[in-house]
Design brief:
The protein is of the alpha/beta class. It is built from 17 helices and 19 strands. α1 runs parallel beside α10. The longest helix has 21 residues. Bound molecules: flavin-adenine dinucleotide (FAD).
Length: 510
């Protein structure tokens, strides 16, 4: 009889783990609390006139997935994707016009020198980053979690000290002179939460966030919305024979008898397992399986989130004021900073801690989803964008922060010729993310990617060297949600790596 795996949580990680384990011959049951799969890679809709519009309430862009996961799961043959080739545009409040982030390194060097007065070595930065990324990626493929010793033997102590165990500020000071370059590079450090650039290990977030291979390290779009990715993977998994139980919540456990209690629409059922995989947020895993109370959990984990997201719809294609001479320029990523120095960047990211401010403007990243769709289907008449922005505290829901919504729009609309075509917008705050997606403290990565939660620390195993994805000291119970190495995002890497550990352990024991 095939081994029974119960996976709890049908977000990207639960879905990827289910796909690999089912194809390896396991009997897989996937239990999901909500009425649909996808977790934070999902959609909501609204009606306007006679039309229903869909938008991404969680993730928007794809980039951190490994290409082999995209291919091996079967996703690559189901989805149409698009990656803008146009240079990205970056705006600072104290600089005239945009700076273009060209793909060509010679053009980029000239642009950074010209616009930002950069006299450092951007090319050396990229070359060294590529070495770290290549090291990390080989670990992903082999499903091997790295150690500092191994990193040192492959990369040398200098690179490890700078890029892995070091802090982001020292890393950026090493390669760059201009605060503008440093702020541009530092965005990823604070993307998940208010991590200080001086915090040990904060450097490592930079190569981690560039370690996707599905689009060679770039970010792009899934046609008609990223939620099609988790929906397609659910359909693929059902076709493979994964039993997906929707509206079904893990509510209790009897670990001695290897069974968990699942409640579906008021009815309770015990599910027996040989292996139990927790692909939920980490608080749910700790409270149900390990009887942690919230106080104990929060005392051991840093999870504060500070990202806001706004979705906006326009009745006609957005006309950007700043032109780029490239055929797909309407879909180019745009980054608008509200701060002009690295110190101001750091202060804004830290200001929302302890609820000292609801909103401390830092930067916004604009994802032109409608324009990306139109490169595949030019007949689409309306437009939509997502604005991912910093820094918001955990104190309020989006619907109570009308003034913040207006402030973000005002800043955005300075760059748009036809703001009057915007007919709908919605703001989500870290508090909304906590309530909608069960992200404890509203962090999109479900952990702060900070000191003591980086690299080999990003595990809940009591024996990481032998059993990295194991959950505490429980036998045959694993954790592979976004809080596990390497991080969250629509990548499924923790789900893949955990599935391989389970398969390996079973092979070794038989
Ligand atoms: C606003 C926002 C924007 C983002 N933008 C991007 C982006 O553009 N690109 C990107 O790559 N990433 C982005 N992310 C991050 C990314 O969405 C997450 O890191 C990722 O989706 C997490 O996947 P997961 O499978 O680990 O967890 P989740 O998606 O949270 O899935 C966990 C699942 O467990 C279920 N569950 C919880 N408790 C129980 C229970 N008791 N019983 C049964 N099921 C349960 C939940 O319902 C959920 O479906 C964003 C996230 C947010 C919120």
């Amino acid at each position: 009889m095939s081994r029974r795996v119960v996976i709890v949580g049908a977000g990207i990680n639960g879905l990827v783990a289910a796909n690999y384990l089912r194809r390896a011959g396991y009997h897989v049951t996937l239990v999901e609390k909500k009425t649909s799969t996808g977790g934070a890679c999902t959609t909501e809709s609204f009606d306007h006139g006679d039309t229903r519009y869909q938008y991404p309430s969680g993730a928007s862009v794809l980039g951190l997935m490994q290409d082999f996961v995209f291919q091996e799961t079967g996703l690559s043959s189901k989805l149409k994707t698009f990656v803008p080739e146009s240079p990205k545009l970056v705006f600072f409040p104290n600089l005239e016009g945009p700076t273009y982030i060209y793909r060509d390194p010679i053009q980029l060097d000239a642009e950074l020198k010209n616009k930002w007065g950069e006299s450092g070595d951007a090319r050396a930065f990229r070359a060294d980053e590529a070495k770290i990324i290549s090291f990390i990626q080989s670990g992903y493929r082999e499903a091997k979690t790295p150690s500092i010793e191994e990193a040192k033997s492959v990369l040398g102590s200098d690179l490890v000290d700078l890029w892995i165990t070091g802090d982001a500020r020292s890393l950026l000071d090493h390669y760059f002179e201009s605060d503008f370059s440093k702020m541009y590079m530092a965005m990823t450090v604070t993307e998940s939460g208010p991590v200080s650039l001086s915090e040990r290990y904060s450097a490592f977030t930079i190569p981690i966030m560039g370690s996707g291979s599905v689009f060679n390290g770039y970010y792009g779009f899934v046609f008609q919305g990223i939620w099609n990715l988790t929906q397609s993977l659910s359909a693929i998994n059902i076709g493979l024979g994964v039993d997906i139980k929707l509206s079904s919540s893990l509510v209790d456990k009897d670990l001695d008898n290897k069974k968990v209690l699942v409640e579906t629409n008021g009815k309770e059922e015990w599910l027996y397992y040989d292996d139990l995989v927790l692909a939920t947020d980490p608080l749910t895993a700790h409270s149900i399986i390990a009887d942690y109370n919230e106080e104990q959990f929060f005392s051991e984990n840093k999870l504060t989130g500070s990202s806001g997201k706004m979705n906006l719809f326009f009745s006609k294609p957005i006309q950007w004021k700043e032109e780029v001479s490239h055929s797909d320029s309407d879909s180019a990523f745009r980054f608008i900073f509200s701060v002009g120095t690295l110190d101001a960047f750091e202060s804004a990211s830290q200001e929302i801690l302890g609820d000292r401010a609801h909103y401390a403007p830092g930067f916004m990243q604009i994802y032109c989803e409608g324009a990306a769709d139109r490169t595949i289907d030019p007949s689409i008449e309306h437009d939509r964008i997502a604005v991912f922005f910093k820094n918001l505290s955990l104190s309020s829901n989006g619907e109570d922060l009308g003034s913040v919504e207006e402030e973000v729009k005002q800043q955005l609309f300075k760059h748009i010729k036809n703001p009057e075509d915007c007919f709908w917008s919605k703001l989500s705050t870290p508090k909304d993310l906590k309530e909608t997606f069960y992200f404890p403290s509203g962090n999109v990565d479900q952990t702060m990617l900070a000191n003591e939660q980086m690299y080999f620390d990003r595990t809940f195993s009591s024996n990481p060297s032998e059993n990295f994805y194991g959950f505490l000291d429980h036998e045959n119970i694993y954790y592979c949600g976004a809080a596990a190495y390497p991080c969250g995002s629509i990548a499924g890497t923790p789900g893949y790596m955990c599935s391989q550990q389970i398969i390996r352990q079973q092979k070794n024991s038989s």
